[in-house]
Specification:
By secondary structure, the chain is mostly helical. It has helices at residues 7-19, 25-49, 55-64, 73-88, 147-154, 159-166, 174-178, 182-198, 205-230, 235-245, 250-262, 269-288, 294-302, 309-323; strands at residues 103-107, 118-120, 130-134.
Amino acid sequence: MESLPDGKRRYQAAIRRFTTTSLSPAEIHKIGLAEFDRIVSEMNALAKANGYADLAAFREHVENDPKYKPASEQAIIDDFDHYIKQMRTKLPQLFTLIPAAPVTVEAIPEFQKGAATHYQTGTPDGKRPGRVSVAVSDYKNRTMLNDEAVAYHEGIPGHHMQLSVQQTLTNLPEFRKHGGNSGYTEGWALYAEQLGKEVGFYQDPGSDYGRLRSELFRAVRLVVDTGIHDMGWSRDQVVQYMRDSHAVDEPTIQAETDRYISGPAQACSYKLGQLKIRELRDRAQKSLGARFDIRTFHDAVLAGGSLPLDLLDARITRWIAAQGK
């Protein structure tokens, strides 16, 4: 956007629209760099915990291990279905507000084969289930490393959980039940990936690496989106930064770079939303101590529907105060 008339102001407006924050591009860029370093540090710790000298050796092994290469399109579908079903059994540890809405896993049809894995909302009455539509084309060149994280992100406790709760809330006008903003919805879904770790999943080290790689990818987005639209980065600079991160493969790098160029700021919403929810959780735990209940905290986050992040902050601040009475 920097090349457009009044481009910096336009970019700041796009940031506000998609992330619902007033952070400056410089602040977002700095957050991205800090998150990148933190996540890589966790990756290094995971590599050493599994007996590898460093992250490079661990990465080389898991990214080339045949066990993470799907044998068929159906193998990918089955993997997603397995993770979503196992997470459903753990929901009572994380929520008291648990929607009954069913969710199915299906392959993206041939005519849409270039699309990324995504979620499609079901009906409020549950007659049409929510659907996790999984990318399976050219399966021989895909990896299953990220399947567990993406299953939690798109299905349970991510998009399916959040949207199923939202569309059945009784205290909201209809437009609030079926709309939303990326800062909240994508922030929640990225936050939800970590919840699998908290209930004892990601037992496979490759899958845990996939979780961290998924989060690293969202940190990279903060750096490159602001680089493009505020700091004069070229396309080649963006591509090289993403290559050096090892967060995604080459076809994804090329497609994502074009996405960021043509759609400023939306890619920043995932990580900024996730960090806000983490910040609110940390604040609640610190304030409430032994009275903090992760289940009712999550209920409070979801039961207001998709809120701008400043209004979510205000809602949780009121919730914390009410717990102390």
